[in-house]
Structure formats: structure tokens, C-alpha cells
Amino acid sequence: MSLIKWNPFLSDGFAFDDTDKILGEFLPAVRSNQSGFTPALDIYEDKDNIIVETQLAGIDPEKVSVSIENNILYIKGESERKSEIEEKNYYRQEIKRGSFYRSVPLPEKVRGDEATAITEDGVLKISVPKLADTGSKNIKIQIGKKK
Question: CA 78 to CA 39: how far, in whole Å?
């Protein structure tokens, strides 16, 4: 018979759902000590392009930069706090402000120099043309004759 080490987190009185609840309540407090935030991304493709969308509501598009190097998309920006009153008695403060940065490897080879970015209703949409598939090329081997 083998011995099983007792673990209070795996006992019958402590469910994993309780752990998720505890961590879910605790993590926003930890995150609020961080500067800035990380915007979520949607990445998908159509026939000719890789498309990346991110919500940047309340952020001035002039303060966002987008670049592509070696098939990696970089998005940087800053959200400013515009408030006349600095001290408030908050009951909850969850809106993330500050600088943000994302770098994402793109799933296919792209022509980064032809990328376009447009913002509409707080959503930044970046469209990057895929590099045309050159396909494979069969090379005929020439046979030389001995002299």
C-alpha cells in the first residue's frame, strides 16, 4: 500500500471552484498595482490578409504606434487620465490606464510594409497582406555526358 501525502487543497472540504472564486477576487487587486494594461487581441485571416483587432476605447489613436518587424506585430500606446480632481473616494477602480505594449508573432509570412491600420468606434483594425505563396518549383536535373 502506498502512502498519499495529505494536501489541504485537495481535501473534500475545499473545492476547486472555491479556489477560482478566491483568486478571481484577489487578482484584480494585484493587477491594480501594475502600471498600464494589456489590450486583448483578435487575430484572424481572410483570403489575402492577416487581420488583428483590439479594443482601444478612450485612447487617442495618435498615441498608438503599430509596427511589424520579422513577422512580429508590435502595438504600443498610452491612455491618459484626464481628471480635474485627482483625489476621489473610489468604491472600485478597475479602468486600466497608462502605457501598454503588445508583441505578437503573426501566424504566416506577411508583407509588413503594406500593412494598414484604421480605428473606428474604439476598435483598432490592422490588416497585413499575406506573402504570396510562391509554391514549389520542380528543377529538372541535367545529366552531363562524360567525354
Answer: 11
Domain 36-81+96-129 architecture = Sandwich (2.60)
> Which sequence spans correspond to the domains of the chain?
36-81+96-129
Tens of pLDDT, residues 6-64: 666 555 554 555 555 555 555 544 444 445 678 899 999 999 999 999 998 888 888 89
Residue 20's CB is within 10 A of a number of other CB atoms, namely 10
pTM above threshold 0.85: no
Task: Please state the three-class secondary structure of the chain as a single string.
Answer: CCCCCCCHHHCCCCCHHHHHHHHHHHHHHHHHCCCCCCCCEEEEECCCEEEEEEECCCCCHHHEEEEEECCEEEEEEEECCCCCCCCCCCCCCCCCCEEEEEEEECCCCECHHHCEEEEECCEEEEEEEECCCCCCCCCCCCCCCCC
